[in-house]
Amino acid sequence: MKKTFLLVIAFSGVYVLSTNLFQEYHYVNSPKTWVEAQQYCREVYGDLATIDSPEENDRLFLALSGPGKFAWIGLYDNTTGWKWTMGEDDFASKNGFPPWENNQPDNKDGNQSCIVINHKGGWRDEICNTERPFICFDEQDASKYIVVQTFMFWDDAKNYCRSKHTDLVRVWSMTENEKIHPLIERNYWIGLYRDLWANWSDSSPVTFKNWGLGQPDNSDNTSMTSCAAVETATGKWWDVDCSEKHEFICQTLIPSKKRLKLRFQSEADLTDPHIQQQILEQLHTKLDTGGLTDFKLRWIEKDGQNFQKKTLKNT
Fold first, then answer.
1. pLDDT averaged over the chain?
2. Rounded to the nearest 10 degrees, how much is the dihedral formed by the CA atoms of 142, 148, 153, 154?
3. C-type lectin domain location, by residue (predicted)?
4. ∠ CA 17-271-16, rounded to 5°
5. 0.85 cut: is pTM over it?
6. Could you give the domains of the chain?
């Protein structure tokens, strides 16, 4: 018997209301540095603008004011966020270590995010898609440091070290550095890297980019151009010196709702409050088990039938 099994007859409906966040953009015509703009947006609206899709970029373009200018958005490049492939801890410079070469790292042309060590022990950043020999670490090998003369891109070198040994080498101290650099005669990859343009001001990951031609290029040789601005005439993004003062775009996150209509067939009397409650409870369990946790269920009136409203989870 399936009379009372979680089903709704064709003339009734159950809706699932799922809450998402919708960006509402606000153009601020008051030039500030990127950090000042971020602080203002957080105090007044929510944060600097995040753009996750072409559709959102189109909406943001409609909010732009005046052609031929730059306006800050929330994208930035964490130029000090170095990490090792072996271990999850972020890497921070301290007590003169690491031994950077002069004016390094410099993120030349805006796309250098992997590190090499030279025969003198100096470090520099380079484009990861450059073929270099590399140094693996092997915790089972007596020598620990395995010099590989084959030229590979950084990512391929990392995969090789992980398949044959432990990982690309991690260098935690000047003592270790002094053990490694006498083993090599040129620039070799090590396991230090960073993610380029990986996060927005609100800490969300970058899933969409709309760079202008040749961008980002880190064109300023005196400082890292590690903040992004939208060109108001085209809607394209540029990397700009964070200390420059520009207008900017803030965002406010507001709830938006999506509806999913579910139709079933049943011989049950759906005007019975007990049947309605049973249906809602079982649907709730099914949706929750399926990974949908932010929703509410309710009966609606259709074709002359009145159903009791039941909210099982508030958004």
1. 81
2. 20
3. 25-137, 145-251
4. 10
5. no
6. 20-76+199-254 (3.10.100.10), 83-193 (no CATH)
